[in-house]
Amino acid sequence: MTKLVVIGGSDAGISAALRARELDPGCEVDLLVADRWPNFSICGLPYLIGGEVATVGSLAHRTADQIAQTGTRVHLQHTATAIDPDRRVATTRTPEGDEREFAYDALVIGTGAVPQRPPIAGLDLDGVHLLHTVDDALAVIDRLDTTAATRAVIVGAGYIGLEMAESLRRRDLTVTLVERLPEVMPTVDPQIGARVRAELMSNGVGVHTSTTVDGIAAGPDGLVVTTSAAEIPADLVLVVTGVRPDVALGARLGLATGAGGALVVDDHMRTALPGVFAGGDCVHTHHRLLPEPIYMPLGSTAHKQGRVAGENAIGGDRAFAGVLGTQVVKVFDLAIAGTGLRDATAPTDLYQPSTIEVTVDDHKRYYPGAVELTVRLCGDRDSGRLLGGQIIGGLSGQVAKRIDILAAAIFNEMPVDALSDVDLSYTPPFSAPWDPVQAAAQAWTAEQRVASTTSN
């Protein structure tokens, strides 16, 4: 009978524990959760703050009791403090402050990530918040509910910053977004980012790009955020400048770190220590289009890696297939998605990237409600292989479905031209005989044909 200890109660840890119990109902699984929120959706925090999600309990994928019903022993507010690989024992600090030991045959580390703390003076002032955990979100809600806050400054225009801009506008706050890079949402091309910025501004969000934050100070009328462009008054400051892997526990074990400072694992999620696996936001990951591991913390990736770690921890032989960085985000009335590589991220020693942009209707125009979708498709000029895609358009345009088509095609190493052969669904209310991603593929192929003819 395998004794499995899983450290971490978020995506990777929960997936590891559940997979182990699914495949081997006889194994003993102890799940060590540092806080009181096992299996809660961190991705849903902006919607809790904005009010679309009514209660914090709604964010629970499963309650602690439901997890326990799978045969997993759940230990809330048990913070792992040490691992003895020789004795195969994990030590935790209990809610009462005592130490407790858990023996294991195999162990999965799923400690996740912690928020980046940029070198900005004033991060510890009252009214300045980082957002990463359920307790962080509850603190923001308490601030909004118990003060007369009307002005918010968000530092960072990545996915969480964009979602929080919308959520705070829903609560009728004046919102200013500050981003040090030239455009918001830097994971997409600037042409897409510019449209996102325009959507933010049309909904009353002030946007300052190419702007650094020098400090935050308490003023006579709330907080003052000093930037390279201006001083911005605020009642609430939200700092969401990314995350870094939480590797403190692994470092004490002497485990190696790699890309992004994350723990090094192989394709079976094994660390260098016998019987010790790791997955989720604390480890590096394999990108299917790149030769070297990268750090890409995503909830969907953490679920997959945890599942692999849990299976292999009880004797399985499953490899993690790798990622493409597929993401989608809602910003007011737009959906924006991306997958794979862009011209700016495709290594030129491996690929000759070329991108085409098309704007087409999401479905036949004669059927009411058609919206425009802009598709940017990146392929390799030499091989014709599909490398990546980005889509932006109205919420009714099934952007998520269409980026998933591209992700599946890239995953299976399809050439761009082959997208036209895929048997996609069609009816006038939902698409056209040639889906927008196929229209983009045909435009890309035609451009390459013209370029080839011209060069010859």
- As for the number of domains, it is 3
Strand adjacency order, main sheet:
3-2-1-7-18
Number of DSSP E strands: 23
What are the segments in which pLDDT stays under 50 over at least 5 consecutive residues?
Answer: none
Question: Total helix count?
Answer: 10
User: How far apart lie the N and C ends?
Assistant: 68 Å
The averaged pLDDT comes out at 96
The share of residues in extended strands comes to: 25-35%
Report the C-alpha radius of gyration, rounded.
24 Å
What does the main sheet amount to? 5 strands, parallel
How would you portray this structure in words?
The protein is α/β, with parallel strands linked by helices and 456 residues long. The protein has three domains: 3-114 and 243-313, FAD/NAD(P)-binding domain, CATH 3.50.50; 128-239, FAD/NAD(P)-binding domain, CATH 3.50.50; 327-448, FAD/NAD(P)-binding domain (3-Layer(bba) Sandwich), CATH 3.50.50.60. Helices cover 25% and strands 26% of the residues. The protein is built from ten helices and 23 strands. The strands form six sheets. It has a five-stranded parallel sheet. The chain has a five-stranded parallel sheet with strand order 9-16-10-11-12. The chain has a five-stranded antiparallel sheet with strand order 19-20-23-22-21, with helices on both faces. The mean pLDDT is 96.
